[in-house]
Amino acid sequence: MTNPITNIPIPAILEIKSGIIYNLQDIFDRHGFENILMLFDSFTMDQWEANIKDSLSTTKVDTVLMQPHAEVHDLIKQAFSIKMYDAIVAVGGGAVIDCGKYMAFSRQTPFISIPTSASNDGFASSNCSLMIEGKKTTVPAKVPYGIIADLDIIQNAPSPFILAGVGDLMSNITALYDWEFEDRQGVSRVNAFASMLSKKAVNSFVRTPMHDIQDPTFLKELVSSLTMGGVATIISGNSAPISGSEHLISHALDKYAEHPHMHGIQVGIATYIMANVQEHRADRMQKVFTRTGFFDHIKTLEVKKADFKMAIENSPEIKPHRYTYLHEKKYQRKALDFLDQDPILQEILR
Amino acid sequence: MTNPITNIPIPAILEIKSGIIYNLQDIFDRHGFENILMLFDSFTMDQWEANIKDSLSTTKVDTVLMQPHAEVHDLIKQAFSIKMYDAIVAVGGGAVIDCGKYMAFSRQTPFISIPTSASNDGFASSNCSLMIEGKKTTVPAKVPYGIIADLDIIQNAPSPFILAGVGDLMSNITALYDWEFEDRQGVSRVNAFASMLSKKAVNSFVRTPMHDIQDPTFLKELVSSLTMGGVATIISGNSAPISGSEHLISHALDKYAEHPHMHGIQVGIATYIMANVQEHRADRMQKVFTRTGFFDHIKTLEVKKADFKMAIENSPEIKPHRYTYLHEKKYQRKALDFLDQDPILQEILR
Amino acid sequence: MTNPITNIPIPAILEIKSGIIYNLQDIFDRHGFENILMLFDSFTMDQWEANIKDSLSTTKVDTVLMQPHAEVHDLIKQAFSIKMYDAIVAVGGGAVIDCGKYMAFSRQTPFISIPTSASNDGFASSNCSLMIEGKKTTVPAKVPYGIIADLDIIQNAPSPFILAGVGDLMSNITALYDWEFEDRQGVSRVNAFASMLSKKAVNSFVRTPMHDIQDPTFLKELVSSLTMGGVATIISGNSAPISGSEHLISHALDKYAEHPHMHGIQVGIATYIMANVQEHRADRMQKVFTRTGFFDHIKTLEVKKADFKMAIENSPEIKPHRYTYLHEKKYQRKALDFLDQDPILQEILR
Amino acid sequence: MTNPITNIPIPAILEIKSGIIYNLQDIFDRHGFENILMLFDSFTMDQWEANIKDSLSTTKVDTVLMQPHAEVHDLIKQAFSIKMYDAIVAVGGGAVIDCGKYMAFSRQTPFISIPTSASNDGFASSNCSLMIEGKKTTVPAKVPYGIIADLDIIQNAPSPFILAGVGDLMSNITALYDWEFEDRQGVSRVNAFASMLSKKAVNSFVRTPMHDIQDPTFLKELVSSLTMGGVATIISGNSAPISGSEHLISHALDKYAEHPHMHGIQVGIATYIMANVQEHRADRMQKVFTRTGFFDHIKTLEVKKADFKMAIENSPEIKPHRYTYLHEKKYQRKALDFLDQDPILQEILR
């Protein structure tokens, strides 16, 4: 038995603090990064490109403006048209981060996430969501070498982005319950360590004061908990620690709804539904979504009940090899009933 | 850059549940353990040896009764007098676990902790506390291959053991604050990932319902949070994520007090003191120690204020290379004043 | 210092023996592979598909016929159109192996090489040579999970394939000499461990009896030495341990010659030239190429001296960031002179 | 399948060259070693301590003179009486290297071997040979962080040390043959990768010119091949790739002979015997031992045939869980006959 202990890769850089975006030189120095490629979307390029470049004294930076809705095909073409960099850095939301993550994976170059919002856990995960032949696909890449979150920036992102992050994080609770259910059915096996990380991440968060979602303490808790959820998926080798029935509903909405909403928003509503179906920590869920203003925000969005109905009905086919609560007719029925009868949902959905 | 991502070793087995101690065969099968050495202390041998053996169908087990106050010298002698086993398992409290951990390290055999109480985080850490030439010494070993905690057993341990675990876990808060302080002084560097794990571990715990410390949910939270603290030390490569000024006080008590108390008990009191010195989360500390009955238990123990006074004064010399709050005269003074004036301490100490 | 020792990934399966191709079930069992995708080219499908399938009792196999000259774009499309397999296996020459390696990389699935000839070290390396937008590109992938070489098959491959393998392996000698030269110029740093593996691989080979290149002992030596060279590149994180000035000449031929020859054939001739330029082990080189029949084979191929002249002249631009002997005018001149004057080259080239 | 590829630890420093012992500062700088403990035996301290210290500009060095025949007990006591160093370095033969290796293991500090002779492969292995309660015991430790061999020094070691190294390296051949035999009996399983490294190491060596065993090229080959054998044992997790029946004979001599000889000397003679018993590469063995002067040297040593007889008879009990050729009566008989009848042995043994 030569290798009895499991080794897991973790990000070598993890910085979550105010103003860090203008102190990158220090970080680059410590890791020997002398040549960097930095990717932006049009908004983040406009906002931060010039100042970040000004703040760097020795590291050379080339910058690129990324287009939305990237095809894997084009990312690879782009990845091999550039020279060899010490690291590829992406500054922005989920889309530009996924592009950078995949380009870095293709070239086997270290990748650094600089998320400008906390709207989901993509900045810490090893997967990307990209287009292959026009179809949105979950594509494996690598765990980021570094995660750098500037709380000043995340704080100033529009509050719906923060609420989406809350929705995505809360889903750990229902996802873990689904995973244990699946394990009891013999369909998969819970990885205790991954499960523990995901659970601690959300438990630590749900007990944070929530009166001000722009408060740095709250945001640091949110970002670090999303990060820890991402690391949990690295350990388990699949997305089960942070993605269960509630994510199936969101994926079905992306596929079938005419106007899908932000990932974390859809996931949050679905999480509220599934917590009630599972009858597990549903009160806690309601408190968090009420206190953070998540429910109030939904009211402003024109989210359609009919879309959720269809999504619940189609959810099992999204991942036929899994076995969540929604893969049993009985619980699917229960979810549909709850959708029809819960007073909160009647108020916030259309 | 061939190896850009940091790899950390984590336990391959992590089981925290009721009745698991009689389901070891399953676990052994999954990991191919056919020959096991199992270590007990006199109490645990009496309680569980026969039943555990009965519950195993195929794995062969040899058992050994370990003596208290083990010298490293004797453990090595013993380790090399036995044949080669697939794993060494220790069933009991900190002492027998440390013996097993070191014997397994010496033979480079996988080690499995089966703690019978939650009184400290030793079952998950990579260090042991052993005697070298009659002197208690912190000795590096290896991260356990497995941690198996039976909640039925831990629940029935005397409540002081549970309270000691609470004390040891709460110290993460003051330890992390010391670590950041030390980092600002340039004496060490906080490992962000280790810090995050330790913080989530204790944050998840402090927000758990505490009306019944024998409740399985509470105990599972306690044990898993202690485990995660242990893993944090593996990542940082030192004990800083879970051991700061409050541990120095406890070590000084072990060294100088006539009658030292249980590790977690001493650490808990010291943590309460240091949280007030640091002026960081002291209210939370007070709530946890009140609600769990920690303070009430101290009243029954004859803990001497004079011992704490001496321990605070001698704490910096315990680890002269560190730089915690107690390494500054000003804060040492503040700790001594608090010891003299805090109403709670006047009530619970002698 | 938490991680003082360098960890390198090595293939978990390494089988080089006669008849192994019909004993795959055993290997698959040991590694838990129940569902396999197996890729063939038209020749290997015709030869072995039916018999391999017949030999497998429990593992389910889907097979695919791969087309030559694969574009990365198409491989990714294909990779994401298939279901999740436990492993992807490629049976054939360099082309189909590179396809399988990249598809497996894209899906992060274990990859197993089953080379049917020993014509180069691609079956053991972590890179592929694929088309991106019509341009041949070296694309990083992952080290194979397994390498399975059936000596019966390799023995029966046409002898030019074996000779090409000899050429590719002998280039370790000139490549290592270039690497040390480059290190002395301060352009790169020799990784001592990678260098040692590559050197032992070729040294072990050059001293093997060479009267019969179809002899299983000779072939096992050739295949295992090529494998060890591949592992050396994993350790160094670049191709330097097995690719220097002689590979630049071959790459230039691929780019500019009207009719390029097999990789290992071009590399072998270039290695003979460079050994004489470097004045290092040129005699040994001549003996190996004479005894194995490599030189005799070249005579039959219509290899053009003019192509080599042009390739030597263009070689530095192929990898401008490197600094081999050919990056110095003086040695480039020496190579051209040798090309013009060496009696052997006058005899074997046109 | 999260971790499909096997990771092996390899030395981070590997330097085999002339004069390197006075260029340690460079190496220490690159690895951040500012405080070093350096162990010597009385000979090496006398020879090199002062000059090494003079050659170091910034790294601080404490030096210790180690006593022969170290008890594990005393090494641990010593290890915990010293402060924390960045690395522990041992300069000398097998004895002082084993002491340093174990002290470094106990403190979990990086260890660097500086062998002053090439008499065995201990400088590269992860085991030590130490005394436990007066009994010589093989004790697991850790793979060295670094191996630094100065060819000027090794060249000037008395030639018997070099010949012992030749004996220890040649044993790879018989050890590997035993391992395959054992595998066929179903007693163990050959690790193909470890086997390949060990085989290439010795194959590369046997084909080196041997007219001058003090020649730097010869010595570099010898030292690097011994190193590669050591790495092979790390991969296999046991000593099988470099230790078979021939080592059992040497261990039995250490245990029972009145005057044991140097490890590599005993192993070399036993290797010659076993190659003839196995009827595998016995001619090659004879050539190497003749050309290097190994046989001539034996004649000067008063090695007793009777001791070898007894050692062969007692060899199986040394490692009863293994199954080498000597574990079968038939081959044991053959070994005894060969001992009695081989003309060379009659000439060189007494």
Automatic annotation (TrEMBL), chains A, B, C, D:
GO molecular function, one term: metal ion binding
Details of cofactor binding: Binds 1 zinc ion per subunit.
Species the sequence originates in: Halobacillus halophilus (strain ATCC 35676 / DSM 2266 / JCM 20832 / KCTC 3685 / LMG 17431 / NBRC 102448 / NCIMB 2269)
CDD domains in alphabetical order: G1PDH-like (cd08174)
Keyword terms: Cytoplasm, Lipid biosynthesis, Lipid metabolism, Metal-binding, NAD, NADP, Oxidoreductase, Phospholipid biosynthesis, Phospholipid metabolism, Zinc
Positions annotated to bind NAD(+): G94, A95, V96, I97, D98, T116, S117, A118, S119, S125
Binding site for glycerol: D121, D168, H247, H263
Keyword Membrane recorded: no
Classification lineage: Bacteria, Bacillati, Bacillota, Bacilli, Bacillales
Keyword Transmembrane annotated: no
Stated name of the protein: Probable glycerol dehydrogenase
Pfam hit, one: Fe-ADH_2
Cofactor requirement: Zn(2+)
Superkingdom in the source lineage: Bacteria
PANTHER family reported in the protein's UniProt record: GLYCEROL DEHYDROGENASE, GLYCEROL DEHYDROGENASE 1
BP term (GO), one: phospholipid biosynthetic process
